[in-house]
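chain below, 353 aa
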Amino acid sequence: MPSNAARALSLSCLLTCLLVLPACKREAAPAEAQPTATAADAAATPAPAPAEAPPAAAPAPAADFDPASVPESTATLPPFPFFAIPDGMESTFDDKDKLANFDRQFFIAGGKAVPVEGKIFHDRFKLDGGKRTYSETEFLRNYENAALALGAKKINDVQYTYEVVDAAGGRDALEKTNYAAAMVPDYRHDIYLLRQGGKEWWIDVSTGSFPLHGYVVVLEKEGMQQSLGFLDAAAMKQAIDKDGRVALHINFDTDKATLRPDAQPVIEEIHKLLSGDPGLKLSIEGHTDNTGAPAHNQDLSTARARSVLGALVGLGIDPARLSSRGFGQDKPVADNGTEDGRAQNRRVELVKR
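prediction:
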């Protein structure tokens, strides 16, 4: 039989085991509580929804092209319009229809179409109907080589797309400039700029179908030579007394509200009109033709009317006698389908208040 000491030792060991085992089970419990994931469980668990992609940013508007970025040519330039008729081709225009002393034409400069004004030559050729047949590539390459030889630089980064045309005021606006063949996307346009002696020549060489033809435009940028005399103060007063308004044609820089130096005589006559009738108050109202985007024309007409007001205030007229506003293209007085009509619509009216 075991001794009392042995029995005491066995009892002590048994008590130690009884105390230790529950503690061991409690420590293991958290691990036992975690269920084991199975393939079925994974399939049943929905995958987290993918994060929504941020909305695409709107394309940035094309930056304005700087003509001064084109170096001036050092070549000896032939007479305007520079280019001879390509060998074997015949023009489809009468000579009298090739030249306009002054008009407006859109050219793609950088990434957008911009209006340029000046003397314009244009010509059109059948590529497959003359003594010699030209492919579009050969026609365009001939003019490219000739333009580069004169020191011109190609300046369009894009073609006429719907977006480019819409940004310029729509196809109707471009087609009303007479020579802008902005057919989308049927026409290919290569645009060049030639600079020398502070002058600019803009060149548009294009091809199209129906029938296959080539088209060339050369514009010498310049301001219009005013051929219409202006009303003096007495004639302005007579018109205002009779009709309550008088329309004036005041020269501004192209597509800007900056008064040109040759506008100063008209401003001085308005000053005489107001100085001679201290009780007369006028609303100065700007108008444009329908070339370009309506919103731009609205802003331009407003700015031009404000420029006239500012010039009169600068001559000493009390600003309380004057107000200004712009109507853009909304109130034409002539047909915008002709250059003469557009010229009449580009006006500033003095309206008695």
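The CA atoms of residues 169 and 293 lie 4 Å apart. The two ends are 136 Å apart (CA to CA).
thats it, cya
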